[in-house]
Amino acid sequence: MAWRFRCEHCGKRLQVDQDPGMNVRCPHCQNAIVVPADAQAHSPQDQAEQGQEEMVGEESTGDVIIAFMATYLPSWGTSVVLHLALGLVIMAVAHTLVPVEELPPPESTVITRPKDMVYTEDSAEKTRTIYDQVETKKSSWAYKPSQNLESSLTDNKMKDTTLFGVGAGGSNFGGLEGFGTGRGAGGGGNFFGVGGAQARDIIYIVDRSGSMADSFMFVQHELNRSISGLRRDQNFHVIFYSTGPGVEMPTRKLVPATEENKQAAYDFVNEQFVEGQTDPSDALNKAFRLRPQLIHLLTDGDFDPAIRTQVQQLNKDKRVTVNTICFLYTTGEELCMKIADDNNGSYKYVDQNWIRASGR
Hints:
By secondary structure, the protein is of the alpha/beta class. It has helices at residues 44-72, 76-97, 130-137, 140-143, 147-152, 216-228, 259-270, 281-289, 306-314, 333-342, 352-357; strands at 2-6, 13-16, 23-25, 32-34, 40-42, 119-121, 127-129, 201-207, 235-241, 247-248, 255-256, 294-299, 321-327, 347-350. β12, α9 and β13 form a beta-alpha-beta unit. Mean pLDDT is 74; it is low at 108-186.
């Protein structure tokens, strides 16, 4: 006879052959227990039936598990979709972690600014520039003095009338071509009314110091106009000065007054800007090394009196004519007059009235 009961310690179901009241050991928790008096007796036939019942119970439990899995676990199609989605997420994360090779910057297209001067040939003997056409039309953009210019002319020894040449240059290359206001007769090196038609080699030495800020465009305009009037048998060069080394045309030498060289000179002149103080010493050294026949020296202010001595030493043989021009201001007038007189040149003072009268 077999007896079935539950262990009082672990609760597991036990089946023993010992009768109630006898001591046994639980095979699950290894504790000693006494077979209880209420243990159920099972014959071999009962055990066989009980085994069948347990098998049925086990099958029922398996059915429950299968039903649960079928209800709550996804189908194979859903599983495939989930795996694909997981794969895409992994690929996206991997792409962000892999360094991307930077593409080279796109090639930029250099756009050059249009030429300020364009030549049109009227005949084989004579050429005319758009610049001259602007003078004829008297376009207001370049010729009206700015408000800043007008207000700044009242505190720096401004004159009300135009002065004329005072040196002995009238019989030389630098003599004035005509009298009165305006730019005088003829071209060929005429600069603010100071002539140079008979000079073969001409150098313009032009002030670009900071004090020229309100008036520099007028100087650029007149310088371009003067260059445009040069003949093909003349040579020229341009040097701007302020503090430090003079800024000269890239050729760094006198060049023939061809249309190509004039065009390059216009570009050079129009690219200049004002800065620094008034110091023409380096520009004068550069100019005299090229041994020109005529120098136009323009300033709007005073500079070191030693400049006069420098020019005297550079021009001991007096073979170079030096014209001087005071533009709008007269602080350097006395020194400019002396330099012109020392070097067979002419002195000219240019005021705002001269600019208006000349159609600048």
